[in-house]
Amino acid sequence: xxxxxxxxxxxxxxxxxxxxxxxxxxxxxxxxxxxxxxxxxxxxxxxxxxxxxxxxxxxxxxxxxxxxxxxxxxxxxxxxxxxxxxxxxxxxxxxxxxxxxxxxxxxxxxxxxxxxxxxxxxxxxxxxxxxxxxxxxxxxxxxxxxxxxxxxxxxxxxxxxxxxxxxxxxxxxxxxxxxxxxxxxxxxxxxxxxxxxxxxxxxxxxxxxxxxxxxxxxxxxxxxxxxxxxxxxxxxxxxxxxxxxxxxxxxxxxxxxxxxxxxxxxxxxxxxxxxxxxxxxxxxxxxxxxxxxxxxxxxxxxxxxxxxxxxxxxxxxxxxxxxxxxxxxxxxxxxxxxxxxxxxxxxxxxxxxxxxxxxxxxxxxxxxxxxxxxxxxxxxxxxxxxxxxxxxxxxxxxxxxxxxxxxxxxxxxxxxxxxxxxxxxxxxxxxxxxxxxxxxxxxxxxxxxx
Length: 450
Description:
19 helices; mainly alpha
């Protein structure tokens, strides 16, 4: 590997016009891993980071070949970026120690880095789950790049998945959990009703109002209101005509918008619909995000419908089941999706409308709903918690774990190990039934004469 400043290992992901290019071989220079991505190239070309370290080349070449192969196989950009982000954390530590990584000492450096990460956990400078996921990601990256077993990298370290304790749900805690989930559902319905297609494409601002606490949020879709534009405020104070170009631009964006200019409100509506869909169907994130459009046909079942995709001369398989009350809401969403996304834009049931300059095909991100509810002082319930609440409610209502596991698309062992939580009410009923079945003479307390 030469000391040339010309980098060639560009991370195989899509970039926007605003995003800095990420080069794997930038890690040949000490200090590059801890430098802001936008400043890495200028610092390398300016000589601030010195010369490239040739011995670092072989591991980075293998990593780049592996990431390129993953991208060719269709791995998501987010997955590849996560690999690279964890790799930079590893090399940042190596740089801090003035060390160099090669194929001989890579396991020793990895073991030392993991120990350092867990020392930071003990000092409360790093979350234990973050340390575990970073360590696991780097071990997986090196193991797969060098084509060696994962355990050969992780053995000898204290890398271990943090235990997740299950707290027993008391009566009040269970009520609070269900009440929070119901309130969250009501907030999602308010967001959906405020973001009809006509409202999304109407005059700015688009306002979202929650009935639960009466709070509201004005969404300007990237446009600044007149009160925040210094030129217009200054012109108003001087009692002269405001800047014509600024007002003409605002008028066009507000009254005659293009679809891509309203991507923020379109995606907010889609994210809210996605969370409602998760709560209704019980699907996990990956399944719901991968769900594609089709000619859905409804088949009546007890308390709801099974939806199939119509296939010519063939009865399609059941895609998911919904409650009867959800059907009109789901059909309204399908109508909204048809209006908001041009024909042929995406086959996904829950796509993302990209703004100009952003590559197509991004995965739906529900953080926009989280930010909105936090700003309005309302609780947010993650898809995992929504699914867990649904599964636990079904388990208490049905009383048959094998049936609930089938409904949740799990085996019984996974259901009981991960999803089900101990419940105070269920335990009280079980103890009552047990003592009711025991001979009463055994229950009598010992007393005088007996």
